[in-house]
């Protein structure tokens, strides 16, 4: 009973902070739903793999090296806090908090879709975090499908300049778009348009899936700088959309169990020899260790950070991160991996 009351109190707090579910305010809806509803589905596939452990690891736990370089930026730990939000006053607080933590821990950070701020420059401040995170790998974000709805190189440059981004993620979300009544579902010819942006934009472009898993066939068509697999097994955006509109609920729920597991996405896309973010259902240090061992260069995590924010603010975020990093280092230690390069392939 006490636990149920805590959950109820948490959800009421979220509704109060975000203003509840208002038609036409997708950003507010998404925050409320992701923070307070059951929006995860599937299995990211990490449990199918075991670490190749060593009884004599020949390494000191205190000396394992988690540093790496991704798209030219140094990370003290191979983790990107994935795109969560933007476009609202509450989103601004969240992004600032996460950015400050990313700066302290040496992580990367992605912001939510910047489309609202491209259309209304007054919203740009809800994405801007350089004042608290001068050194981090900062990733901008636009929906790739918007290239079929009037967006082009100018808008992509604006998204980068808006936040002084080090890279721009063009997210691929056909299932989410199909599961929302106002979705943009014309994905015809997008590969060519993405490649055109990638060739002309001076900033690296990341092709980013958001929960269905980036497939090898599609990835091969894209001449981008990096991939973010966004695999099945974490947050289901079709399930998120099912909470927003009762007329589309059946579609969202039905297809929440469709996609390629994250581990399989990593295993396939690492063959392409491009920087790779392993995201989708990464929840603890063991998941992260396996993702890197399978071939990802860094991992991406989103939902746990949002829930920590609402569950206890920056203190809860730090506690979660400290635990994940500790677990990750133990995984490196017991596999005899002194650095991330040595961790590669340490699964079976």
Report on this model:
Helix 3 packs parallel to helix 13 (about 305-335). It is globular and about 60 Å long. The chain has helices at about 1-20, 25-35, 90-105, 115-120, 155-165, 175-180, 190-200, 215-220, 235-240, 250-255, 260-270, 285-295, 305-335, 340-345; strands at about 70, 75, 80, 110, 135-145, 165-170, 205-210, 225-230, 275-280, 300. The protein has one domain (about 1-345): Aldolase class I (TIM Barrel, Alpha-Beta Barrel). It has about 350 residues and is of the alpha/beta class. Helix content is about 45%, strand content about 10%. Strands 3-4-5-6-7-8-9-10 form an eight-stranded parallel barrel, surrounded by six helices. A two-stranded antiparallel sheet has the order 1-2.
Question: Which structural traits does this protein have?
Answer:
348 residues, alpha/beta, TIM Barrel
Instruction: Please mark out the parts with pLDDT under 50 across 5 or more consecutive residues, or reply none.
Output: 1-24
Give the helix tally: 14
> How is the largest sheet built, in terms of strand order?
3-4-5-6-7-8-9-10
User: What is the CATH third-level topology name?
Assistant: TIM Barrel
Biggest sheet layout:
8 strands, parallel, barrel
Mean pLDDT: 93
Q: What is the C-alpha radius of gyration, as a whole number of Å?
A: 19 Å
Helix content: 40-55%
Question: Strand share of the residues?
Answer: 5-15%
Can you say what the CATH homologous superfamily is?
A: Aldolase class I
**What would CATH call the architecture?**
Alpha-Beta Barrel
What is the total number of structural domains? 1
What string gives the helices and strands in order?
Answer: HHEEEHEHEHEHHEHEHHHEHEHH
* SS content category: alpha/beta
Shape: globular
Give me the count of strands.
10
Termini Cα gap: 42 Å
Query: CATH first level: which class?
Result: Alpha Beta
């Amino acid at each position: 009973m006490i636990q149920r009351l805590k959950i109820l109190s948490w959800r009421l707090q979220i509704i109060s902070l975000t203003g509840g579910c208002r038609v036409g305010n997708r950003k507010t809806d998404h925050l409320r739903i992701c923070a307070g509803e059951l929006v995860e589905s599937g299995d990211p596939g990490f449990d199918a793999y075991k670490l190749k452990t060593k009884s004599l690891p020949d390494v000191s736990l205190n000396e394992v090296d988690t540093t790496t370089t991704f798209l030219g930026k140094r990370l003290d730990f191979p983790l990107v806090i994935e795109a969560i939000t933007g476009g609202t006053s509450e989103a601004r607080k969240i992004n600032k908090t996460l950015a400050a933590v990313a700066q302290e821990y040496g992580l990367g950070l992605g912001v939510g879709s910047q489309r609202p701020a491209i259309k209304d420059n007054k919203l740009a401040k809800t994405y801007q975090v350089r004042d608290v995170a001068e050194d981090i790998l900062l990733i901008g974000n636009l929906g790739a499908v918007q290239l079929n709805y009037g967006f082009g190189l100018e808008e992509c440059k604006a998204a980068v300049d808006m936040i002084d981004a080090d890279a721009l993620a063009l997210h691929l979300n056909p299932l989410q778009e199909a599961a929302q009544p106002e979705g943009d579902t014309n994905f015809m010819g997008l590969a060519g348009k993405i490649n055109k942006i990638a060739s002309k934009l001076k900033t690296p472009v990341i092709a980013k899936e958001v929960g269905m898993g980036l497939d090898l066939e599609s990835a091969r068509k894209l001449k981008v700088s990096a991939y973010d697999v966004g695999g099945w097994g974490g947050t289901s955006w079709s399930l998120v959309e099912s909470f927003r509109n009762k007329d589309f609920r059946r579609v969202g729920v039905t297809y929440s169990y469709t996609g390629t597991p994250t581990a399989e996405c990593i295993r396939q896309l690492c063959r392409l020899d491009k920087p790779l973010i392993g995201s989708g259902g990464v929840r603890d240090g063991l998941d992260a260790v396996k993702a890197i061992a399978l071939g990802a260069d860094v991992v991406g995590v989103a939902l746990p950070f949002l829930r920590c924010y609402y569950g206890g603010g920056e203190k809860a975020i730090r506690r979660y991160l400290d635990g994940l990093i500790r677990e990750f280092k133990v995984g490196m230690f017991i596999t005899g991996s002194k650095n991330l390069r040595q961790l590669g392939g340490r699964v079976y």
